[in-house]
Write a structure and sequence with these properties.
Layout: H1 13-36, H2 40-61, H3 71-82, H4 93-96
């Protein structure tokens, strides 16, 4: 039922299914990785690509200026990308990249 609206667009059905699976798993896995603090930068870049795909998809169905679902996510994503990684004290990446001060 979700794909019925997208079948009216110029996109092939295989691309719709592929992007639907990608965006679903990217948001699930990327969000989990951000919560536990593992592979933070990679997860943020995967979610940025996901956000571009979602923006394009919403633009096909609705006017592009109606991005009520995208703008808050974009602001949060950009803020997390700009925050220095040293400010994040509670993350699993610290286990792999320990700075030994002798």
């Amino acid at each position: 039922m979700f794909f019925m609206d997208f079948e009216k667009t110029f996109l092939p059905k295989w691309l719709i299914w592929t992007t639907a699976y990608y965006t679903s798993y990217a948001e699930l896995i990327g969000g989990f990785l951000l919560i536990i603090g593992l592979f933070r930068k990679c997860a943020l870049y995967v979610l940025a690509v996901d956000l571009l795909i979602v923006s394009f998809g919403h633009g096909l169905l609705e006017p592009i200026w109606d991005l009520q679902h995208v703008i808050p996510r974009a602001i949060l994503l950009i803020a997390l990308l700009l925050v220095p990684q040293q400010w994040d004290r509670w993350h699993f990446d610290a286990l792999f990249t320990r700075n030994h001060k002798d």
